[in-house]
Amino acid sequence: MAANLPWDITIEILSRLPVKSLLRFNCVSKSFYSLISQDSHFKRKHLDHQSANHNLILNLEHAPECLFSCSLSSLSSDDQEDVVVLDNPIKVESWDCLRIARSCNGLLCIQDIAGIVCIWNPSTRELKRLPDCPRANDRIACSLGYDSSSDDYKVLSIHESLIGDRVARTELQLCSLKRDSSWRKIQDLPGMKFSWYDSYDFLNGAFYWIENVGSYSDLNGPLVIASFDIKKEIFKEFELFPPTRYSYQYTVFDVSVLGGKLCLYSLGSDVSFDLWEIEEYGVLKKMLSIRINKIPACSVSIFKPLYLFEDGKIMIFTRINYQQEVNIYKDGDSAPKTTAANCKIRKAYICNETLISPHIND
């Protein structure tokens, strides 16, 4: 059929197909192989078409060495979808030995307990190990972002130097996949408190996080949001003032990129979850609220949003009474829809399909 179609129409059709099908089509002809495996413009076009098609990737207790992937569309509806098994690309016995940052254009940034960082495409199974980082032992986070100005993927690594319990110095390092894949020291910051989270969220060329996230705050003052622009290589801060009713003593705040928007969310001592969009000049626009009835606050240790659906529902990774689940809530909900109800979940990630290779210049 392709021989009877204009090449531009063939490209348009192929750019809308899933990665699994395209990898099979590599063997059809030399022109197909060149387009699918080597044409960066086609890969970008395919990624644009796949931007709304995401997969939920789970690590389960009964198979700690593997990941399981299924489409979000099957979870949001009642449709059934085949589950794909993803073998561990780094040879460790369990994914508990690895930290995985949020997906960037379908690529995952993985760090093992020895500080080794790899970039992995779970759709094509391609893996690239980055050079060893001189200060890997004091790294607290590592995340992947995309610089559209240079069509390059860059890994931000954050390191802390401690004197006793005090943070004496924070160092930012950057590694470019396109240039030479070597680590460069970007900036030294004074003793600032960063989160000990696996990663920071990325949106429109910048990483975002809340300083000292996860600690209990009295919230007499503002929340401090930090950002790092990977094109200009500039670190900035700005302040947010949550609504006054959130000034009770025990409220945990964090930021997340959901639906292409930078969002602030809170988990309160009354086991309430609230989500706002952070608009220009730090204005907060309320998006949804969830009240979890009949659950003691002390039993909730994780309540992290994963994905915001177009219909306003939200997927949240939770740990309640040591039981980890992925639930789908709607605004005002107290009784969620539970996904993978019969599975014991260890970790959960969101990732869209992509042909983008971590071996940009190889």
TrEMBL record:
Transmembrane segments: none annotated. This is F-box CPR30-like. Gene3D superfamilies: 1.20.1280.50. PANTHER family: BNACNNG10540D PROTEIN (PTHR31672), F-BOX PROTEIN CPR30-LIKE (PTHR31672:SF13). Residues 1-45 form the F-box domain. It comes from Olea europaea subsp. europaea. SUPFAM superfamilies: F-box domain (SSF81383), Galactose oxidase, central domain (SSF50965). It holds the Pfam family F-box.
